[in-house]
TrEMBL record:
Pfam families per record: Ribosomal_L30
Signal peptide interval: none
Membership in a protein family: Belongs to the universal ribosomal protein uL30 family.
SUPFAM superfamilies tied to this protein: Ribosomal protein L30p/L7e (SSF55129)
NCBIfam families named in the record: rpmD_bact (TIGR01308)
Presence of keyword Ribosomal protein: yes
PANTHER family (alphabetical): LARGE RIBOSOMAL SUBUNIT PROTEIN UL30M, MITOCHONDRIAL RIBOSOMAL PROTEIN L30
Coiled coil: none
Domain spans labelled Large ribosomal subunit protein uL30-like ferredoxin-like fold: 4-54
Taxonomic source organism: Podospora bellae-mahoneyi
GO cellular component: ribosome
Ribosomal protein as UniProt keyword: yes
Name of the protein: Large ribosomal subunit protein uL30m
The entry's keywords: Ribonucleoprotein, Ribosomal protein
Length: 125
């Protein structure tokens, strides 16, 4: 037995009540929701009433929920090798030793130009 695989593609907001009732009779309430109905004249007629709002395909069997979810999942095209370095103090990339110097945590003379925050404001060095 074959089935109609019906997916609500467009929203029914602002459409006449009769159109929304047809979608409700098909079991479609949310966008991207998919339902399966047997290939019969009454379902074909309902689909024709809302053909601009739905995507329809004829399939051999009903797919399980996990199969539909797996179908929608994109292919794994990349993997995370390592985290990107964080940006600190005004968007400038600064090493931890240099940052400690800029904040005055390390004794000695500041030899690096950069941005230091003092009391909520920024001071350019």
């Amino acid at each position: 037995m074959s089935y109609f695989r019906i997916t609500l593609h467009r929203s029914a907001i602002g459409l006449p009540q009769r159109t929304r009732d047809v979608l409700s009779a098909l079991g479609l309430h949310k966008r991207s929701q998919t339902v399966y109905h047997p290939v019969e004249p009454q379902f074909a007629g309902m689909i024709m009433k809302v053909k601009e709002l739905v995507k329809v395909a004829e399939v051999d069997r009903k797919l399980e929920k996990w199969e539909v979810k797996a179908e929608r999942r994109p292919d794994s095209g990349f993997y995370l090798e390592k985290m990107a370095p964080r940006m600190e103090d005004g968007g400038q990339k600064i090493g931890s030793r240099v940052l400690a110097r800029l904040r005055g945590e390390e004794s000695g003379e500041m030899t690096v130009e950069g941005v230091r925050t003092e009391g909520g404001g920024q001071v350019r060095l």
